[in-house]
Amino acid sequence: MVMAGRQERVLTRKQRQSRRAYAVILPFFLYIAIWSLLPLVIGLLLGFTDFNALNGLPKWVGLKNFKTFFGSRDYIDLLIRQMWMGGLCLVANVVLSFLLALALNVKHPLRGFFRTSVYIPNIAAAAITSGVFIALLNPFNGGLNMFFKSLGMDPIIWNYSQFWMVFWIIVFFVWRSVGPAAIIWLGGLQSIDASLYEAAKVDGASKVQQVKYITIPGLRFISAYILLTGLIGVMQMFDVVMLISHGNPYGKTDVLMYRIYRDGVISFNMGMAGAASTVLGLVTVLIAFVAFFIISKGDNNE
Amino acid sequence: MKKLIAMLLACTMIFTMTACGAQKENDTTETNKENETTTEATVEPTKAAETSTEKIHLVAPKVGLNEEQIQLEKDNAAAENRELSPSANFYIGVTEKIAEQYPNYEMEYVDWGWAETLDQKQRSLILSGNAPSIVAGETFMPVYASSGMLEPLPQDIVDMVNPSFLIYDPQGRPVSVAYKSSVFLLFYNKTLLKNAGLDPENPPKTWDEWKTMSDAVTASGNGEIFGGGVPSFPHAGGSLRATPFFRQMGVDFGGGLTINLTDPKLQQTLQFIRDMNANFPAGLGNNSDEGPLWSQFQDKDKGTIAFAVNGSWQKGALVNNGFDWGVTALPLPEGGVVGNCMVGAVYVGVPTTAENKEDCFNLIRVLLDQDLQKFWLKEGTPSALNMYIDSSAEYPDDVTLQAAAEALKGGAVKGLTTFDKNDAQVWEIINTKVLARTTMTNDPIDQICNEAQAEIENLLK
């Protein structure tokens, strides 16, 4: 007799374990899908539409927004500026955080205090700390120019100069980001087997040789992490630009991510925001792959 | 397929953009058909709501204050040992009047911020099909109007206000009204003029006179005192103040799908703005932060700038800080015409998708109540009502309000022009790459304008 009802399926132990494991991670997958994947897909699709959130539904316009992006020098300039300004921020942050980590690794009674101190700028409210920066840069009676005047020097009109505004953007970025990166470097430094340094000392290696042949190779994975996450971070950097320079002087410090923000929630040109986000995302992925390839190649050679 | 994708996008946009929608507690039996019939301008205010017992839930920003906000205003006034401000009195008065005249209205007075924050919140709600009863705003309200999403104003509202306070839709119908607004005037510090050997009772009437006087103050100020000029802040604060000067030359930036930066008269005005900028402390007239400039003009311990182009509200700080000050209409160029720009306006309108539209218009009628509007006069802000623009009987000694009313009388003052596409981005280019660049660099003005013209044309395609 053939059973008409539902057939009971006997699962193997491995299948049961897999199901339990998926059940555990399912809520997190759903969370990521709703808050990350869905906006990503929406952003991608919006790039093919004309939509201002006032006049009904999005209108399908095909590749029009992408043609505007590549047909206009403005967006390309912003992308290039995002890359070089982001690159400067990244390099400065990686180098300074590494040096800071070396300093924090030195045994000292106040080491704990300094480790905490370097992290504080990162948790302080950016709106407030940027306000302090802006007050310092006030061209007429800001703190820095008052100081220069007291030394008999001419004041600097910071906001007229692309160089100075980029400089202060980097300073603010590094000031906020150096702490967390230094703590990660520090974790890496402390994971290196101390006996290697002792053996090197016995062999007569200098401090520079110890850093070159023990510390840096020992930090390969940490540096890969810092570089890759840093790279993605600076390609999405816009808050620092918005808070410190607003893209000024006359757009010379404007970056693509800040433009996407303005296209999206200031101009409500959702189509261009979506198209520009897609291009920026693809460029970021490409750069990250290249960086990953270079790092992996180094590992293989080793 | 396209329709399906569009539907999906709209649904997901609603989901992602709507932080929290206004509650719909009102009667949902009203049909769309009923809404459609109310899109025609209503002629007379309804009294139905006064006698009706049906509860009507209305959500309105920038209309009144909730109990908590009223208490906060009162506590602040008590803590600072002062009376309630005219502005607080106005909003409390509106709240009380609505409660008295329309007891069946369940009012939800919401504070959604101002500028971009308010725009974002309102668009989210409109998009989610949960439009508030009233939408409010300043610079973005012409965009709402041109998109056709505002209901035409009833004729009785249109008739009671000065046309300068109205915004029109593409069909030429008034769809939004500012219940308060100001225009730009030239304020001056008489002490600084006197110290520079100038007659403080004889303010400048032309651009040339103004430049001569401002140059004289700067020259005698030894790097400590400055004449002042036309601010070119790289944001709306710059374009709002510069626009009257362009209009005095008979030009504007364009509008709709056109941009007009290559006009010689516009470039001539930019040259004047650049020349006048030399009378500001370096970097202050075009700083992202307006605060330091106003501080130098009006703060008690400062007062280092002689002239300031500002709205009528400027009077308050000058009086409170004990300055010997004066005010006059903006100087005119040779052969120019009177021109100005609405500023500090709070426009309100009723979305076409709002429910109970006639009740929404009743809120606007209360905002334009002639007794309540007197609070704005006390604050030094012109009222929207014709009766207070055409006659100065309510403010016989207020020279600032009289000067502002004089500028508004013709009913032809407008806010910033509106562009049909990428309005905010176009204005950003004008603010940063035209106005600020003009005063920050010595780049040829025609080059500045040509580059910006090309960039903006691309955005308007």
General description of the model:
The complex is a heterodimer of chains A (302) and B (461). Chain A has 13 helices and 2 strands. By secondary structure, chain A is mainly alpha-helical. Chain A has a single domain, classed as MetI-like fold (Orthogonal Bundle). In chain A, helix 10 runs antiparallel to helix 13. The mean pLDDT of chain A is 89. The longest helix of chain B is centred in the C-terminal third of the chain and has 18 residues, at 423-440. In chain B, the strands form 4 sheets. A 4-stranded antiparallel sheet of chain B has the order 3-11-5-4. At the A-B interface, helix 1, strand 2 and helix 12 of A face helix 1, helix 6 and helix 19 of B.
Which fold does the CATH topology of the largest domain in chain B refer to? D-Maltodextrin-Binding Protein, domain 2
Order of helices and strands of chain A: HEEHHHHHHHHHHHH
Q: Could you tell me how far the N terminus lies from the C terminus of chain B, measured between alpha carbons in angstroms?
A: 27 Å
Largest interface: A-B, 46 and 51 residues
Descriptive tags:
heterodimer, A: mainly alpha, MetI-like fold, two-stranded antiparallel sheet, 1% strand, B: 461 residues, alpha+beta, D-Maltodextrin-Binding Protein, domain 2, 20 helices, 46% helix, 10% strand
